[in-house]
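Sample log: PhzF family phenazine biosynthesis protein.
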Amino acid sequence: MKQHPTAADVLEVLAVFCGPDGRHGNPLGVVRDGRTCPDEASRQALAKQLGYSETVFVDDPERGALDIYAPGERLPFAGHPLVGTAWLLDLEVLNPPVGEVWARDDGEFTWITARPEWAPPRTLRQYASAAEVEALEVPPPGSWIYAWAWEDEAAGRVRARGFPGRGDGVPEDEATGAAALLLTAALGRALNITQGRGSQLLTAPGPDGTAELGGRVRLLSPGRRSLTR
C-alpha cells in the first residue's frame, strides 16, 4: 500500500546568508509539501520541534505560496525564509501572507524585493563600534533587538547581531533579513552586513519604497535534525 509522505520525507534544511567562505548562515527548515502539516497547530508544533528561527511550509510550489513559522508564532513575512525558499525552488515570485515578493538569482546571491514595512517590529539599537556589538551578552527576554554598528560607514559595512527576545529557544538569530530591511530603510542606503558568527546580508534601496535583500544559500540536508528526537 502506498504511504503518504510525512514532514520528515519532504523537509530540506538550508543555510541562508552564508559568508564569503560558504560557512555560517542561518538554518532554515523548508517543508516542500505543506499537506504533510495541514493545519496551523501541526505547523507550529513542527517549527517548535525543529527549533530553527523559522520554518517554511510550501503550499503551492508553482505559485510560491508559503506559510512561515518561528518556534512560537506564525509570521506573515520574514527575510531569510523567502531568500532560502526562492533559491531552493528556483522561483521568480513568492506569495507569503503579506503578498507578492519578486526574487532573482545572480549566480552567487539570491535576492528578494520587499517592502520594509512588511517586516515585524524590531528595535534598531546603534553602538559606537563593532567591538561593542561583538561583546554584547544576550539580553533577557523582551523586545526584538537588532544591535548594530558601523565597521566602515563610507563603504556601508555594518556589524550586527540579532536578539529575538521571545524566550522560545532562539536567544540569538544568526542572520535576520527583516531587520536588515528595516535598517536599510532607516539609513536610506545600500548595506553590507556581517551578522552573528559570520553571516553576510546585502541590501539596496529600490524604487517606490521597496528594498532588495540578498545572500548566499547552501543546502545542509541530509544533515537535518531528527523529527523524532
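Observation: The chain has a mean pLDDT of 93.
Observation: The longest helix spans residues 40-50.
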